[in-house]
User: Which sequence fits this backbone?
């Protein structure tokens, strides 16, 4: 809360302790007033308000201070790969500075590498900070739910529009229809006969809840506290006087706020992030070992000594050569790190979000795309997620030709759109008198309305009453009662006509005792009639007659009553909420009633008279209503089952209703024993082994669940290694959405709190969209594996190249800035294009991958070690070929006039000053002539052509290797290059970029390379193309291994069955 105690602790603690010591919901109203030292007539005094505020603070939610911008920046460097890059950049900068002291072009070139690495790290940090900075928006959205004003009694006077922030425990507050509750409060008295609250967003209940001033049980859950109203919920019917018991962070919505904050502090890394961190740690060790080996191999070049009497003496250390080999080690680090990997992953995930957006799945956090691919459990809310959260009539029961005969009509449709569905086998051409009376009661004895907002139909008022009005529209109106001249385009045209025919004069409001509502209406004939709807049992008990199909009235005998009761039982067993209809024509005192000035009006002011007025009724029929499942949910859950994904339903709704829905949508089979698979939240928390319960195969159901129960379920599943997706739309879902591996909010019916706490929002509130998104996530992950393998195999080749150069003692073939160019620019487009690989046809028929599955299996690692070794041999080999051979495979290489040397001379080039008669000639490179002022420069500045050949071979091999990455084991014959045209475009782009740095003089000078001739390009292709043949052989071996493994598994399974 806003105010804190002097010791820095929030004064909230005392409120929590008080609520534990004094449970207001379990005490009567007198005890509650006594506890808070207040009377309902006077309210708190000004001095009491000041005292309470000193203790409890303001009625507002805490503002958790998030990490500072600098903390967020530093967190971006808490990554192994980033640290290695940072170290390499610092060392490169120091070496560039050292070289820069000597001046010259190479000194300027050396700065390109550290600056590019620093730029990568800065961009990565900016993106990371931007994402982290949006993390706490859920808490801000939660504050918007709070009411802004309240009507309060203080010092014996009523204060209208008091800011809700000023409320304190003990305040007396009056609530009316439409008010948003400003704090958690105890109902002291009802001003109207009934009060109903819409609290679905907090508790998950699909229907508005009746409130009373009667105390509840001490151990009641939040749904069972019927004498309490909660902050953020809305009054949909009636008015009442309440006592504020909890404010700010002590309210139920405050607890949700705390849970969201705690969940946001414990967000786990995505499976891919974990894999990349593990890879980074392994890479650190590998780089360290290889750098040490390179150092040991070359130590003889910068540290020499002589032996005297068996002991080394006369040590000679060359700082210049030591620095040179240290630069080689840095080059090795640059070669080993896939610098472009973070950028390519981000690009691939961003492209994935666009694909998902086209399927109505809006991804708020990029890593969620990848997490979806390994989802093993979907924990779904029921109300508004699996169901429409729109009440609708599913069955209409009317009386037949005889009192012991009933007619049943199935009603289609699951929304408030009157045109959505119809009534099966309904006599719409000639509506009989019995059906007309049912339609009249449903239309006139009704306080709701329906409005159209865009393409959506929304209910204003009680959802059950809105469903009845939709039923009336589907029933239509008899031709003789309709006005042929009026073609009304109104949404509720039939209801409007019934209300015109029966003018409403008075209302007998619903109450919990008689469980019915009645209206006195005046018909066209001029006589008054009482129309009643309510709980079927209560209506039957107060009925003496029954109306038949033709409108005639006969006594309600035992046989007829039992038939109706049996029908009611069958409908209730199917989780339908049933309402009965009845009317009364002979109203005695109310026969001439015309409004509040009539003598009988005083009877309507006392609700205790309503039951006697509603006696001697004529029963007409009943309806069964429900919050129906979404049409597409059944097939979506079947798809989940086929994909190896379990569906767990967690709802705040009634257990019987939830079980019926779960059977209907396929979470449970129709005849399945679910005694060990369906629990209330309380029952689950009392289990000794909760994890064992959650490990059961198939679906599970948890009803009457509170936010803490949802969090516990998600937490236990995650501890068990499951990758959990949690769906929901209400405030009560937000903490679990935040805690889950991927939180999925409903875009249409979802609250802003749920959306801000989620990783993904469903734009169409369609459960099947989740299944489509999971399939897309799996496809994206497979493509990411393809380009990660491609980039890592390329880096292995670069490491092999540098290691072999150092091991053989030949001049450095590739410099760090060239390797950086290859890793960032040349490799980037093909790696990104691999993200467009077409999805596998059976991607949703395979079980989900385990979150701890390795990115690179031992066999794949072996394959790429072989490929990497070939890359090293080819890159170093072409360097050696240029120096030692005049031709290769019939390709003439001597036309540039360069001098050939022996391999021995090349591998001992550092001894060049001691060679006699060595005088290499100048040679051409394009239009440029490479002149040598010192013969030994032939192995330094003169290596520019050999270096260009090595770089070109490396680029060409990596382009051809990208074709190998189209499929993990599939041959290019089965998955040809044109299966992914983007890859061909990317290869062309990369080759184009390479040609640019070769043939643009300014860029060629920066990268230390020269143009190549046609023959030299033929040499590059001859050396690079075999990489495809080598990997094709390895893929064939891999397919044979997989076939053998599958055969062994099938034989093992068959053996077990026998």
Assistant:
């Amino acid at each position: 809360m806003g105010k804190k105690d002097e010791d820095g602790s929030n004064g909230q603690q005392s409120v929590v302790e008080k609520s534990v010591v004094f449970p207001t919901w379990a005490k009567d109203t007198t005890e509650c007033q006594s506890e808070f030292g207040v009377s309902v007539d006077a309210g708190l005094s000004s001095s009491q308000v000041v005292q309470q505020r000193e203790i409890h603070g303001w009625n507002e939610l805490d503002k958790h201070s998030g990490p500072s911008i600098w903390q967020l920046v530093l967190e971006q460097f808490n990554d192994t790969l980033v640290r290695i890059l940072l170290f390499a950049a610092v060392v490169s900068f120091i070496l560039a500075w050292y070289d820069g002291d000597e001046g010259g072009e190479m000194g300027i070139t050396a700065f390109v590498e550290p600056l590019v690495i620093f730029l990568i790290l800065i961009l990565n940090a900016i993106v990371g900070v931007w994402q982290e900075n949006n993390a706490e928006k859920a808490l801000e959205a939660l504050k918007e739910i709070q009411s802004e004003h309240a009507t309060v009694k203080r010092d014996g006077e009523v204060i209208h529009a008091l800011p809700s922030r000023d409320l304190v425990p003990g305040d007396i507050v009056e609530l009316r229809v439409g008010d948003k509750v400003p704090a958690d409060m105890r109902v002291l008295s009802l001003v109207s006969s009934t009060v109903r609250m819409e609290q679905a967003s907090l508790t998950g209940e699909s229907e508005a809840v009746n409130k009373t001033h009667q105390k509840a049980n001490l151990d009641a859950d939040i749904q069972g506290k019927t004498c309490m109203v909660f902050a953020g919920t809305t009054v949909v019917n009636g008015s009442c006087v309440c006592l504020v018991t909890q404010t700010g962070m002590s309210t139920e919505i405050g607890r949700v706020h705390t849970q969201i904050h705690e969940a946001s502090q414990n967000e786990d890394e995505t499976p891919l992030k974990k894999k990349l961190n593990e890879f980074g740690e392994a890479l650190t060790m590998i780089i360290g070992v290889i750098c040490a080996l390179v150092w040991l191999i070359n130590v003889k070049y910068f540290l020499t000594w002589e032996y005297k009497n068996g002991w080394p003496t006369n040590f000679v250390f060359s700082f210049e050569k030591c620095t040179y080999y240290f630069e080689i080690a840095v080059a090795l680090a640059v070669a080993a790190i896939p610098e472009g990997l973070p950028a390519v992953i981000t690009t691939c995930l961003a492209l994935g979000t666009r694909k998902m957006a086209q399927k109505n799945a809006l991804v708020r956090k990029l890593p969620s795309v990848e997490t979806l691919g390994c989802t093993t459990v979907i924990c779904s809310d029921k109300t508004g997620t699996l169901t429409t959260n729109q009440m609708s009539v599913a069955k209409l029961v009317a009386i037949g030709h005889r009192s012991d005969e009933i007619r049943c009509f199935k009603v289609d449709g699951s929304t408030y759109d009157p045109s959505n569905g119809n009534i099966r086998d309904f006599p719409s051409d000639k509506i009989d008198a019995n059906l007309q009376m049912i339609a009249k009661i449903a239309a006139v004895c009704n306080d709701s309305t329906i409005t159209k907002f865009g393409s959506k139909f929304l209910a204003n008022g009680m959802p059950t009453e809105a469903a009845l009005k939709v039923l009336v529209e589907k029933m239509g109106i008899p031709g003789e009662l309709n006005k042929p001249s009026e073609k009304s385009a109104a949404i509720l045209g039939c209801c409007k006509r019934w209300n015109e025919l029966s003018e409403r004069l008075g209302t007998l409001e619903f109450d919990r005792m008689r469980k019915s509502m009645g209206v006195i209406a005046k018909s066209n004939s001029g006589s008054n009639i009482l129309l009643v709807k309510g709980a079927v049992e209560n209506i039957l008990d107060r009925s003496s007659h029954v109306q038949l199909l033709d409108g005639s009235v006969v006594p309600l005998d035992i046989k007829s009553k039992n038939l109706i009761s049996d029908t009611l039982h069958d409908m209730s067993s199917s989780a339908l909420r049933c309402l009965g209809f009845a009317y009364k024509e002979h109203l005695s005192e109310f026969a001439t009633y015309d409004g509040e000035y009539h003598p009988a009006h005083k009877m309507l002011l006392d609700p205790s008279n309503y039951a006697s007025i509603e006696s001697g009724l004529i029963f007409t029929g009943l309806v069964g209503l429900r919050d129906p499942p979404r049409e597409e949910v059944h097939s979506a859950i079947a798809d989940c089952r086929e994909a190896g994904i379990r569906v767990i339903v967690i709802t705040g709704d009634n257990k019987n209703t939830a079980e019926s829905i779960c059977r209907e949508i396929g979470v449970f089979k129709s005849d399945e024993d679910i005694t060990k698979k369906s629990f209330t939240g309380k029952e689950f928390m009392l289990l000794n082994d909760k994890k064992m319960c959650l490990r059961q195969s198939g679906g599970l159901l948890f009803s009457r669940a509170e936010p803490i129960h949802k969090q516990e379920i998600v937490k236990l599943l995650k501890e068990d290694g499951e990758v959990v997706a949690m769906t929901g739309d209400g405030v009560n879902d937000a903490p679990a959405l935040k805690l889950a591996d991927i939180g999925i909010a409903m875009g249409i019916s979802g609250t802003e709190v749920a959306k801000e706490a989620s990783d993904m929002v469903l734009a169409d509130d369609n459960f099947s969209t989740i299944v489509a998104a999971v399939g897309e996530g799996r496809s994206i992950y497979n493509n990411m594996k393809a380009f990660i393998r491609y980039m890592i195999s390329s880096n292995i080749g670069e490491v092999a190249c540098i290691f072999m150069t150092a091991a053989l003692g030949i001049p450095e073939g590739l410099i760090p800035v060239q390797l950086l160019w290859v890793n960032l620019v040349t490799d980037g487009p093909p790696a990104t294009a691999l993200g467009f690989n077409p999805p596998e046809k059976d991607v949703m028929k395979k079980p989900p991958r385990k979150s701890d599955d390795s990115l690179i299996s031992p066999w794949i690692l072996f394959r790429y070690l072989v490929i990497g070794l070939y890359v090293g041999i080819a890159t170093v080999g072409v360097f050696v070929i240029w120096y030692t051979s005049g031709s290769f495979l019939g390709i003439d290489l001597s036309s540039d006039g360069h001098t050939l040397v022996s391999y021995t001379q090349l591998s001992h080039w550092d001894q060049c000053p001691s060679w006699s008669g060595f005088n290499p000639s100048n040679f051409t490179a394009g239009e440029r002539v490479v002149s040598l002022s010192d013969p030994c420069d032939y192995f330094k500045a003169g290596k520019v052509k050999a270096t260009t050949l090595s770089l070109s071979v490396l680029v060409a091999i990596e382009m051809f290797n990208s074709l190998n990455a189209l499929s993990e084991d599939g041959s290019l014959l089965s998955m040809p290059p044109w299966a992914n045209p983007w890859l061909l475009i990317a290869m062309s782009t990369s080759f184009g970029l390479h040609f640019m740095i070769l043939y643009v003089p300014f860029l060629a000078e920066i990268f230390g390379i020269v143009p190549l001739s046609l023959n030299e390009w033929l040499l590059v292709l001859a050396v690079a193309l075999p990489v495809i043949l080598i990997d094709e052989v390895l893929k064939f071996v891999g397919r044979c291994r997989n076939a053998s493994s599958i055969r062994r598994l099938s034989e093992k399974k068959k053996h077990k069955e026998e």
Observations:
- The first helix runs from residue 12 to 21.
